[in-house]
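In this section we walk through a basic example: taking a raw amino acid sequence and producing a predicted 3D structure, encoded as discrete structure tokens. The instruction is simple. Fold the sequence below.
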Amino acid sequence: MNRRPSIRGVLGSLLPPRDLVPLAALALCPVLTFCVLASSPPRAHAASSRTPALVPVTWPQPAFCEAEWFTTTGGMHGGAVTENRAADSGGRRITEIEDGDWIDLGTVSPARVGSVTVRASSGGIGGTVEFRTGSPAGPLLGSLTVPVTGGWDRPASPAARLTGAEGGVRLYAVFTNPAWSAGTADLFAVDWFRFDGPEAGG
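The resulting token sequence is shown next.
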């Protein structure tokens, strides 16, 4: 399991990307507070890494989450990897997703949000995203299927309802497909998560 290192960061704020919400709604969206962490100066062509580049600090009711914002990743095969990809939102996504891998998405309030949409692509075998609370093996709140999309640059956006949780919970995305085995292609790659509902924040 890979954990975020305890290092100093820089606090800041940002608004949601303009292409995700109508311009008229920008003034109504809460600001996200975030912490940019770096153990060393950024490199122009950084190699793939399991260490997240951005880690949310104050994020009680997120509406949009880059997949690489995970705080922790793990699984029997080492967990997900962050990969630079210019065509994806934020220029990055998570890859090398195999059966049983998972990421920690931080604290959310599923009962007040209602559903989550995932932007993912699969040139591999596809699979399921399970949303669980407390731990990767915790209670299941909902799930969705990421189909084989016909290529790693041909994304789909399936959604799942989140039910059965009250208040703030630690949310994990667990990636599964029992058909996966060593030597099999990855399940899929994930670009972002979007939490939907009238009480989802900016």
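Looking at the output, two observations stand out. Confidence is low (pLDDT under 50) at residues 4-49, 53-61. The longest strand covers residues 115-122. In the next section we compare this with other chains.
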